[in-house]
Structure formats: C-alpha cells, structure tokens
C-alpha cells in the first residue's frame, strides 16, 4: 500500500469495484439497546477518476436488494418484504454520483443520488483514500472507505414497533458503510 500521492495524475483512469474484496453494509439500532449490522452481498459499480481535476470524476453503484444479509434468515426475509425494502417492486438500490470534491489530503466528498425503494435523495458520502497497491496478478487496486447516516423514513422505509419501555424496535437512523477495493482498468 502506498501513501496518498501529492500528484494525483497516476490515479487517473476507470475503475471497477471488486465486490469479492469490498463491503457495502449498514448498522441500525435494535430495541434501543444494541446494534444490528448487515451487508449486501451482491453489488457492482464503476468509477472514473480525473487526477488533474477530481471534480470531473464520478461513479455508480447498483446493489441487489435481495442480497441483504444480517446473519438471521427471518430478519432478512422481513427486510426484503414491503415493510422495509420491498424488493419485489424495487429490486435495486442505486447511487449515481453528481459531484466529487477533494476535502482533505486523503479525502473526497462524493455527492450523488441515492435511490432506495423508488425514492431518490441527494447525499454526500465522505470517502478516505486508503492506498494503492499492485496485487499478485498485476492489477492496480485503490482502497476507499466511507460512511454516512440516513433516515430510512426519508426513503419510505417506515415500518416499526413501539416498545413497552419506550422507544421503538428499529432506529430511524441507519449508518451506511462502504469499504471499497477498486481495480483500475488497463
């Protein structure tokens, strides 16, 4: 892995997300006392990066909603239902970037349209560049990590249950997590 370069031009190019070495996950509060973590196991994405002018960079990610995995089959079935993701009607969650801004020495803010359950909202995901490496197969890989918190009700994901002790079963705020390994195209 290399440190963040001052000259970004070597990073210029097109990239494809390596889903086998990446994670798109989420965290939600459950019963107001603990966190439940999950991930989507099927997704794809690509990006272009312009080292001379990062604002001309962009990318897309498509997540298959049915691939939600919280390590609990009953909970996953409920998340796929109309109460949450309604995957039969809305099989994909998408993110399409609209702007990229360098926010620090090794960080970028990526703004774009996040669509969940047919509702599109503009969000900004702060990403940190984690480094570049050449893997044993000669592929140039770039690592990025980012996260943001959304309100699931903004996307029409409104199901909940009140608790006798106060509060609700599932938090409205959901943290989305992105751990990305992207391969530079030759």
UniProtKB/TrEMBL annotation:
A Pfam family that the UniProt record links to this protein: YceI
Domain Lipid/polyisoprenoid-binding YceI-like positions: 14-183
InterPro entries according to UniProt: Lipid/polyisoprenoid-bd_YceI (IPR007372), TTHA0802/YceI-like_sf (IPR036761)
SMART domains the record matches: YceI (SM00867)
SUPFAM superfamilies recorded: YceI-like (SSF101874)
Family named by the database record: Belongs to the UPF0312 family.
Descriptive protein name: Polyisoprenoid-binding protein
Species assigned in the record: Streptomyces populi
């Amino acid at each position: 892995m290399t440190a963040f370069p001052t000259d970004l031009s070597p990073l210029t190019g097109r990239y494809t997300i390596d889903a086998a070495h990446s994670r798109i996950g989420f965290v939600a509060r459950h019963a107001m006392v603990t966190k439940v973590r999950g991930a989507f196991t099927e997704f794809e994405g690509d990006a272009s990066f312009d080292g001379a002018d990062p604002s001309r960079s962009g990318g897309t990610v498509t997540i298959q909603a049915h691939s939600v995995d919280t390590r609990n089959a009953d909970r996953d079935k409920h998340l796929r239902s109309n109460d949450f993701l309604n995957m039969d009607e809305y099989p994909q969650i998408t993110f399409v970037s609209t702007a990229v801004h360098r926010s620090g020495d090794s960080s970028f803010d990526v703004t774009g349209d996040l669509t969940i359950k047919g509702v599109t909202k503009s969000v900004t995901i702060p990403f940190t560049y984690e480094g570049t490496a050449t893997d044993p197969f000669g592929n140039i890989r770039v690592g990025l990590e980012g996260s943001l918190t959304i309100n699931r009700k903004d996307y029409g994901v409104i199901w909940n249950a009140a608790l006798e002790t106060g509060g609700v079963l599932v938090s409205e705020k959901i943290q989305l997590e992105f751990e990305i390994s992207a391969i530079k195209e030759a």
